[in-house]
User: Which sequence fits this backbone?
């Protein structure tokens, strides 16, 4: 924040400041510094770090894909190439950040395959992890987050739908983290609200994406993992 204010002072009183641009820089720099002990130094350069542009582009295209017919998505080859390039760049930056972290801080273990009263049987191989950097930025952009989601993962079934452009999980993650439990009855809603206060039970949301498609979001009782999955994968 000090770097941002110093930069503003140097511009002078008559300068026009792009507040949205500066707050995006501040958010990215803060997350990188606090979570990864890494400095993007966005206020020491005119252009923002490429990760920001890639992130914004990928999120926008992900949402648009979910609204377009599959045939249209298949025909938009240049858009698909740009989307793939954005995802590649985000992964590369995330891996660079992770590589610079001490080995003891690289925790990427998905839930075990053991059955528990709060969780069905899931082998580790079905989980797709969001990169640490992307996950941190994603959470920072959600207003009114009501609880810590822990590590965010999705199953293979959800991942395939995302790749096909049939599902944008970000929409339902935002609702879940904001306490919008989706298509639950009153009893289940009250159970979620009680679990939110006590912190001693899991949080469960169910959303109807379309006539033949539903998605579930489950946050474990210890708030260590939040999973996006299909009902058939539970």
Assistant:
């Amino acid at each position: 924040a000090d770097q941002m204010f110093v930069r503003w002072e140097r511009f002078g009183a008559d300068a026009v400041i792009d507040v949205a641009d500066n707050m995006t820089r501040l958010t990215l720099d803060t997350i990188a510094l606090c979570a990864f002990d890494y400095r993007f130094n966005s206020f020491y350069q005119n252009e923002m770090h490429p990760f920001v542009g890639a992130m914004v582009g990928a999120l926008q295209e992900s949402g648009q894909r979910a609204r377009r017919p599959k045939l249209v998505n298949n025909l938009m080859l240049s858009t698909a190439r740009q989307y793939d390039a954005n995802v590649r760049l985000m992964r590369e930056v995330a891996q660079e950040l992770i590589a610079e972290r001490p080995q003891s801080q690289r925790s990427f273990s998905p839930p075990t395959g053991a059955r528990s009263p709060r969780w069905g049987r899931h082998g580790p191989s079905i989980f797709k992890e969001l990169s640490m950097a992307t996950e941190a930025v994603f959470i920072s952009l959600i207003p009114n987050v009501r609880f810590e989601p822990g590590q965010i993962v999705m199953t293979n079934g959800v991942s395939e739908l995302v790749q096909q452009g049939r599902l944008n999980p970000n929409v339902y993650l935002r609702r879940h983290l904001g306490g919008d439990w989706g298509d639950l009855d009153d009893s289940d809603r009250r159970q979620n609200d009680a679990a939110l206060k006590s912190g001693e039970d899991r949080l469960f949301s169910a959303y109807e994406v379309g006539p033949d498609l539903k998605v579930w979001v489950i946050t474990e009782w210890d708030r260590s993992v939040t999973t996006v999955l299909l009902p058939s994968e539970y």
Observations:
- The longest helix spans residues 77-100.
